[in-house]
Amino acid sequence: MAMAGLHLSPEVQQSFQVAKNFGQNQLDINSISFNTDGKMMVTTSEDDSINLYDCEAGEHMQTLHSKKYGASLARFTHGGSTIVHASCKENDTIRYLSLHDNKYLRYFVGHKAKVTALSMSPISDQFLSASEDQSVRLWDLRSTNCSGVIQLPSQTIGTIGPKGMIFAVGVGGNTVKLYDARKFETGPFANFSIGDGGDMDDLQISPDSKHILVRKSGRVVILDAFDGTRKHDLGQGNVSVACFSPCGHFVYAGSTNGHIFVWRTQNGEEMTRHIEHRRPISAIGFNPTMMMLASADTELNFWLPTLKA
C-alpha cells in the first residue's frame, strides 16, 4: 500500500490523499506508534482499546482491550511485537505488552501521577518516562527496577534523541534541559529557556538532530537543538498534535478544526494543508520508512501521495 522512493517535494506534499479509513474506535485515538521498519502501526484510544495495523497491506490486524487500566502513549519496542504503554485508570503504572499473545510481560511502577511521555531508545532496551509527579524516570525493559530518576520542580515531559545518546526534558512551560544519557546524574549539559508560560504538551527531537519541537498552548515552537534559539512559532493556537517527517525537514500538525498543516522546519514556511477530518485531530505520525502519514480522531486515516515517482 505505502510508497517508497519519493522525495517529500512541495508537489508530493500537496498530493497526499486519504487512501484508507478505519473506524475501529468509539472514542478519540490518543497515540500512534510505528515499529522500526514501518511495517506495523499501533494505536491506543480513550475507549481503552489497542489496535494493530499492517501498513504494507493497509489492513487492520488486531484489537486488544485494556478496560481496567486504559491505554495511552503506546510505543513499539525493538522486537516489533511488543509495546510499552501508559495507564489511564486505576494507577500510573507503565505496562509492557506482548501483542502476539495479549499478555503483559512486565510492569514498571514508580510514577505517582499521570504519565505525560514515553520514549524508547533507538539503540538499547532503555526507555524514558515523564510524569505530572514532576519526575523523569529511566527504565530497562529487562528489569522492573527503575534505573534512574530525575526530580524536577514542575510537571515534566521528555524524549530520547534519534541517536540514543542524549535526552531532552521539558520542565513546566519555560525550560528544555538536555542530558547525556550515559551520565545524566551529573545534570543537564544545556538549558534552553522558551520564555513564556503554559505547560508543554509534547517535546520531540528531529530525526536529523537539528531541531527541537515543543507543543504548548496550541502552538508549535521550533528551537535550534544546538543553541536553543527560538526559530519559529507555528500555528494559531489550534494545534492539537504534531510530528516531524522522517527526514526532519518538515513538521506535520493536526489541529482542533480538523486541518493538517505541513510546515518546513528550517524556515517555518507553510507547504500545504489537508482538510479531511471533521473533528479535532487527536493523533498524528509519519511512517519512518514509507511515504505514509497517519492521522486520527475517532477514525484513523492512512494518507499516501497520488503523485508518481
Q: How is this structure best described in words?
A:
The protein is an all-beta fold and 309 residues long. It is built from one helix and 28 strands. It has one helix at 10-14, and strands at residues 16-22, 29-34, 40-45, 49-54, 59-65, 72-76, 82-86, 94-98, 103-108, 115-120, 126-131, 135-140, 143-151, 156-160, 166-171, 175-180, 190-193, 202-205, 211-216, 219-224, 230-234, 239-244, 250-255, 259-264, 270-275, 283-286, 293-296, 300-305. The strands form seven sheets. The protein has a four-stranded antiparallel beta sheet. Strand 8 (94-98) and strand 9 (103-108) form a beta hairpin. The longest helix has 5 residues, at 10-14. The radius of gyration is 18 Å and the shape is globular. The chain starts with 9 loop residues before the first helix and ends with a strand. The model has no long low-confidence stretch (mean pLDDT 94).
